[in-house]
Structures are given as structure tokens and as C-alpha cells.
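Look over this record as teaching material.
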Amino acid sequence: MKTSIATVSLSGDLAEKLTATAAAGFGAVEIFENDFLAFDHGPREVGQMVRDAGLEISLFQPFRDFEGLPEPQRAKAFDRARRKFETMNELGTDLILICSTVSPLALGGIDRAAEDLAALGEIAAGAGVRIGYEALAWGRFVNDHRDAWEIVRRADHAHVGLILDSFHSLARGIDSASIRSIPKDKIFIVQMADAPKLDLDLLSWSRHYRNMPGQGALPIADFMAAIEATGYDGYYSLEIFNDQFRAGSARQTAVDGRRSLIYLMDRLKAEGRAMKGPSERDPLPAPARTAGVSFTEFATDGASAEGLTDMLTAIGFRHAGTHRSKDVELFVQGDLRVVVNTEMEGFAHSSYVVHGTNVCALGLRMTDAPAALARAEGLLATPFRQTVASGEQDLPAIRGVGGSLLYLVPQDDALGRQWERDFALEPGWDRHAGAGLVAVDHIAQTVRYEDMLSWTLFYRSIFDLSVLPTVEVPDPGGLVRSQVLETADGSLRVVLNGSQSARTLSAQFVSQFVGPGVQHVAFRTNDIFATAKALQASGVPLLPIPQNYYDDLEAKFDLPPETLAQMRATGILYDRDEAGEYFQIYLRALPGGFFVELVERRGYRGLGAPNAPIRLATQSRLSQPAIPKL
């Protein structure tokens, strides 16, 4: 698959955009005219910069309001085109995009447009370039790729072809099957963009809310499958107008863009809907199957470790062993494994220096760890390796949110073999029920708001995770956007939280933490009331929930009085849906904002979203300095 990206999709100046495009592995770049006009080098120099970066120019765009004009505007449009062809020759590209007119002066008519394109095709042939005609979704007369194709067909010129753009077609609900009858040699380039479903005018929707394939709600796979059915073998080029992307990292956006195209093509190949020529690589391994969190690793130092281990012990963990060659301790409760790393060098120490005490790594139980690593690398994840001592287990890992690690742990090694190789273990180390915690229910990672789409794509493309509808949760300081990804059996749930407001707890965590990371871990118990009783006996500081919440709960649900009394006394929150019940307890946050949640599920599949505003308001109130008494 030949991949390209438009410079308008990226932040920075033209030089930064070219660097990011090349680094992400694209083969070509579309030069958006405004990026070129605002740059302080001429077309020959820009063309050389592109080639020096190892790229081609797939397209120069856009050329607006050309067809159907009366005189003298028609002659002026042809003159403008000749000047653009000269610029293209100096840039070193042979294709320009002509988008359907929105000019109030245009006269319309398919034959008139075809005659104009045919005449321009003759001029283009003399200049050694080609023109591609595209139907804008908001075009005055032509806003459907079927009409654009009819104009190109009637123009009947070798240097005149069609440009297809997924947004312009799918935003109008045009059936992608209509593409299958277009000859592949008349499709000059394909532009790809997804978008969320929004009730907006087409122009505003397009200019501000496009996103990468797989990040939105348009039937982008059907569109690409129709293109593939024609035998098309040219560039798939990303043209993404998105305010977040233009404010974010050009390098990250470029990586996301190429990852999205690889992911989409892999899906089509796996479904048998993409062309499979002998020169194309085999499909990636299937989405990596996970069976939940194998272990949670904290990075800290000797002084801070005591408070962390006291908290772990208070919620039922016991010390189970010491690493054979590193300053690393293992804590166990049932099948749960928590690692406390106080090394003074290496990855964990670097993570501590940057973030303070934090969850620096997660182990994920993988059905096939080598295949998971191969898929992750194929989707541009960054692998991680560090030196291990002889006889110790060398686990594959990839970089995750905030530079943290995701270890890909073979499922058979997750509970025993991994720890027996690397740790001096205490007798009966793996037989400790503690406070009844049995598994990691979910991991909540707080990220920058502008990176939420990026990390959603990262997780859904590599792992066997489905994306649930986005939820916006009220925080006293603003709204927090929450995105949940989960396996079909619920063994792994990842929650991504981000906020545009600097006053929310999520934003404050990113600021204080010096970047995104794991803000809380939720452990699951099979008996929340027994666990709460054990925690109270250990003196664990639980989050106090206002009594007004329980008064409302009593009115909403027919809970037994004795159950409600226990919940009031321990700060247990509650929700119910058609599948079952959900109970939650929160511990008070540690310095830096990390906190632990304990949950019990009784068939319930959600995450207690109705309770999130109560939790956030309480945490926010407790995080504020006390008002001095007069």
C-alpha cells in the first residue's frame, strides 16, 4: 500500500511537516498550497527538500472555483491554472487537485464542466502534468463523486482523472458500491478521512472535525474496500482537517495517520476485502488477545516506598519476594501481582525522576506474546528492551501512555514461572487471600485531551479491544472526556480520561505528574462488604461520600435498609443497569494524585459513570487547602 499525508493535517511549518511525514514512514506528501505560500523558500527548493526527506509529492492542492465560469472569469481561471502548472514543474509533482466550484458566478452544467476540464487537460498535457477533479460535499453544482466521475468520463482526456475523498462521499451518505464501476486508471489519487457523527453543516464538520480512519464513525472500511475492488494501486493519502491535530505534535499525528492506514488495510485483508498482490506483505497477526492485567509495577525511591507498601499491605497485599538482582519487591494477593521498583538506574528510575512515584509499567497476559509484539511493531508501536541477568525472564514490551511500558507476558508464565525465575520467593507466596481482591478490573490512564484519539487508536489497533461510546463526566473544574476500551469478556478494561479545562483533576494530574500516565487502578473483589470491613479494620483512609448521595440512592433504588446502612458507613457507591449491580469504594489519593478503587460486579458491564461526578467532587474538595479559621 502506497501511503501519503497532506501537510494540512500536521502542525508546524512546512519543514517540520516534511520531517514528521518522513519519520512516520510515509512515501509521499500532499503539498497544501497555504503551507507552500507561507514558506520562505521557492518551489525548486521545496521540491528538493521533499526529495531529500525521501518523499515524493503525491499532489499539489487545492485549485478552487475553476469550472463553469463565464467570461472574462473563465479566461482568468485558465491563466491561474497555467501559473500553477509552472509551480508544479518546479516542485517536481505532476498532479493537482481541482475541487468542484462553489463560486456564485459559476453557471453549472455537466457538459460545460466537462468541456472546461477537457480544455484544461490539453494545457496540462503540454505542461506534463495531470488534473484530478474532486466533488466537494458542499459544492454548488457538483457534490457527489458519481457526478464528478460523469464529468471526468465526458471530458475523456488522458490527463484528466478523478480524485475520491472518503469524507466528501461518506458525509453525504453516498453508497461506496458506486465506486466499484470506475476504471482504476481514472482514479488519480484517493484521500482518506474519518469523522465522528455530528449534527453540523458539512463545511464546518469537514474543516474542524475530521480524524484518522478508525477514529470516527463513518463506514470508512466499506469505502476503502470499494476502492480496492477497482484494482487501484495508487496512493492512499490522508487529508485531515482537525483543530486538535494542528495544535498537537506533528510527529505523533503522522505516526497515528500511518498506523490508521495500516490498521484499516489489515482489517480489509483479514476480511478478504482487499487486493492481495504478490508484492504485498502478509496480513499482520490477528489483534492481540489479552486475558487481563498480569502485574502492576510502581517506580519509586527508598524514602517513598514505605508509604506505598503500607498502602498495599493495608488493602490486603503481602510481601512475597525480592528480585534476585535488582531493588524490586513483589507483593501478592490472590492472583494479583504488584511490583515496587526502587532501582537507582534503568527505566523505572528514569520514570521516577520524571514523574515521582507512579505506575511505570503494566504486564498484560497474552495468548501469544510473540505474535502480539509482531503486530504492535507492524502498527508502529515502539518496542522496549533492557538488559536482564542470566536466567531471568526477558519479556517483550512496548512503549505506552506517557512513555510507560506494556509488558506482553505469556499467559502460562503470568502467575508462577515469571516470578519463580526472577525472585527469591517466600514460602506459600502465592497462597494469600488478603482482603479478597481477585483481579484488576480496569486501569484508568489520564492523557492530554488532544491525545485521546491517538491513544484510542493505539489500543484498538493492536489489542482485541472494542471502543465503547465516549462519556463526558462533570468535574467541579470542567468536563472530563472518558473513553473506555474493553475485551469482549471484560478481562481487560482501559479507561482514557482527558480534559480541555486546566482546572479539572484530570488536567491537574497531567500537570503535576509532568505528563500522562496511570491515575488509578481498580481492583475487583467478589464481596465488597467483606473487603470494606477488612479495610476499616486496617485503618485504610477511604473516600468519604456525602450523605446526600445516599439519601438520593435510597429514593432511586430499592436497596435493603441494612445494605444501605453499610454503604453509608463505608463510602460504598452503587449503580445498576439491565445486566446487574455495581459497587465501588475509593481510597483517598496519594501525593501526586494516584488513587485506588475497589469494585464488585454482579453482572454489570459499565464503570459506574453516574457516580463519577460524586467521586470527582469529593476528591476535588479534599484536594483543596483548608480554609483557615478566623
The two ends are 71 Å apart (CA to CA).
